[in-house]
Amino acid sequence: MTRLIPFLFFLALPFGLSAQVLNMEQDNRETDTIGQIEPEAIPLSRIVQELETTREEIKSNRNRVERNITEADSLFPIYEEFLNEQKQEVAAFLTANPNKEKIDNIIIKWEGFNNYLKSWQSEINESERKNSLLLETIEPKEDIWVLSYESALEEDIPEKVLLSIEETIFDIRALKDTIFMNNYDLLSLESQVNQEINETNSVIDELRALKRSEVYRIFHQRHPALWNTSFRNIWAEAKSEDGKPLEITRFGVRKFIDNTKATLPLFLFLMGLITFLILYSKRTLRKYPFERRNLDLQRAKNVFSGHYISAICFLSLLLARYYFVPLPKLFLDISILLLLVFAVPLVLNFMHKRYRRLILFAILFYVINSVKTHVWFNSEQYRIYLLIEAILLIAVLIFFINPHYKKTKGRLGDFGTFLLKLVPILFVLGLIAIVSNILGYTNLTDLSLKIATRSGVFVILFYVLLVIINAVFLSIIHRHYVVKNEYDVDKKIQTEKKALRIIRVLIIIFWLLAFLNMIDQFQPLVTILSDFLSEPYKIGDITFTLQDIFSFLLVLFIAFALTRIVSFLLNDEDGMLRIFHLPKGYPAAISLIIRYLIIGFGVILALSSLGIDLSKFNLMAGALGLGIGFGLQTVISNFVSGMILVFERPIIQGDTVEVDNLLGIVNRIGVRSSSITTFDGAEVIVPNNNLISNDLINWTLSNNTKRVEIFVGTTYSSDPNEVLKILFTVAEGYKHTLKNPPPQALFVEFGDSSLNFTLRFWVHYENWLQARSDISIEIYNQFKKANIQIPFPQRDIYIKSMPGSSQDPEPKDKPDDTSRKMEDTDIPEVITPIEHREPDPDVKIDEKKLTDDEDQEKDPEKDD
Fold first, then answer.
1. What are the distances in angstroms from CA 521 to CA 38, 212, 241, 793?
2. Average pLDDT value for residue range 453-474
3. Coil, strand or helix: which one is 9?
4. Which residues of 823-839 are buried (b: 16+ CB within 10 A; e: fewer)?
5. How does DSSP classify residue 817?
6. Is residue 499 scored above 50 in pLDDT?
7. Topology at the third CATH level for domain 705-785
8. Contact 706/699 with Cβ under 8 angstroms?
9. What residue spans in the chain does CATH classification 3.30.70.100 cover?
10. φ and ψ at 818, to 5 degrees?
11. What does pTM read for this prediction?
């Protein structure tokens, strides 16, 4: 419950902030509508200067307005004509019986046309918005110059100035008319662009409907059986689309340049970040040693030792592939080939020598399978091409795998073993492709060969991506721990395994999505899930969808995951902020602030994903704030105290503190309380308010040194000078003793039975207890060598009689004139007095007589 209260406070904090922001916006709107400043005439002393300034502004604005419409008017008719030609080609394309890959190619091309038109639409809307803002600034100037003209008529000013004012007013009104006409032309152009967008959408929908038609289903017999085919037209020219690639390239390149003007800096920044991470990981794995038995770190080091350039190029090209979209299918296939080129050096280390050439054959089969996407065949040529591709696939698998399968099975490594497990599946797919092609089910043949030839390529690419990401994260985790003086090796290994497990799951998910997209099942699956998740449900007056709930939970999960990552990377002086050489405690404060901001914005975004209007929570936020003020005073006090601890830094994580008779190490400074681990192993939760309001001793705030003091006494027969010399030498020669301040040996006093000395020396706090023990033992050893004795107290014991002894013939009631004096030389100072010991069963003491003798000693005149 105590952990839930701070969370509820943070959950309520965004409501209060949003309510305050909404109130401020409402106040600003009221101020803008009520407190508008009335236009005033320009003073005559400044009227000439303002005339020149206004003319320059009118000229600049007119050129800007005319340029907005001119560029769009000049390009759109050409592009509209180009789209009409492409529509005719699509009509011819639909009658050419294309395969699904060619349909995908045309869909990607028309999505590019659609995006180009949408970018024009955005530019037109932006021009309209600028014109509206320009009108808002021009209309008050018109009123100002009209008032200035009326004021100038009342004054005696030159006629030329009046004419200039009239011309300025006329120019302002002409500019307003130009803006209105420009907006009219922009609206007309926007309607034409919207019409073209609708037509491109209809073409895309028609192409997608063709893909979903009966003709392209997997078990549809698209061609007759092979024995019913005559092959008379095998050398006939195939139907093809009469496209104009130069026109497409010209507009595509222009659109690419226009888009990259704004997005290229971000792409270059991301490339720089990738380069920094790779080089940082390489330097970390080379600089900081690790256990030889850690195979994961050894593999990461091998990846970056000689192939870091390939890793940088691989990640940069992969980013570009999904950053600049949509791209033509030909460019996408070329990017896959380039990715394979950079992936080959990284994956060869994890394969057996005999099977390394399989990567080259995988690339070859990818090219063979991609050719039919861009080259047109007639029906007979297409089926022969598919049959040859399937036979080559099975032949290569038999040649490389079968002879040495059992011999090399145990020496292939993880990746090689995984590829061998795919071999039976590839054989089955190849056989299915051959049989289905013979029977005329070419759609099934296409799908089988596509999975067999491209799935291996995707496995290689995603495996290389997994290896690179694993290496980066392992280097970060390794550096995070090894820079510390002491760290828990088991905890480090557990963190590495957890990170690798999470990365592996994410890569598998991305590979699964890519595989579904490859077999054209991703979009149908997304549609099914979207329809299911967007189904509305109603409970009482509340209407919600599963998509809203899923988005809410996902945003919160991402926010808390980011806080964990930030805490791991920035929470101590050895984290990522180490390069800035910040004072002690600053990284923890920065980490805490970032985590609070992430949680706050995460809660706001999560609530927004539910479709909740935060303006409706104004009253609830006020009531909740009032309840917090009165009902949760202690919690808020602890929260504020926690913020004081973070920013003022009287204690930080890792300090040794003493508060309320509690001595231990600060383990965590939280929102409501802090955790202190005592030296007995107990973890004590201390409210933050106690750390602020009570007396607090921090042994390691400014430094972690402590003065240790040892008291020792010697007999009066010892030489004080020699004792002081021994004490100083022992402290100075100890390995943990600090040189500054130096040790100090002092003579304290003349005791009752000893000469008393003290030894003072400084050590680091974590070593003081062991240092006091070691130096005390060494003092004892040196005293023993120098024949210096440590005194102990002496006591006299008087025994009146010994029952059963021959020396005691006297009756029990007769006073004993003699006494036996025994010196207790065997009793050290720390032993309890003799009267508190257990009596010897062989010695019987007459307690009554002993008491009488003691009374007689106190009062000798009593017997007289």
1. 64, 11, 26, 95
2. 87
3. helix
4. eeeebeeeeeeeeeeee
5. S
6. yes
7. Alpha-Beta Plaits (3.30.70)
8. yes
9. 705-785
10. -110, 155
11. 0.67
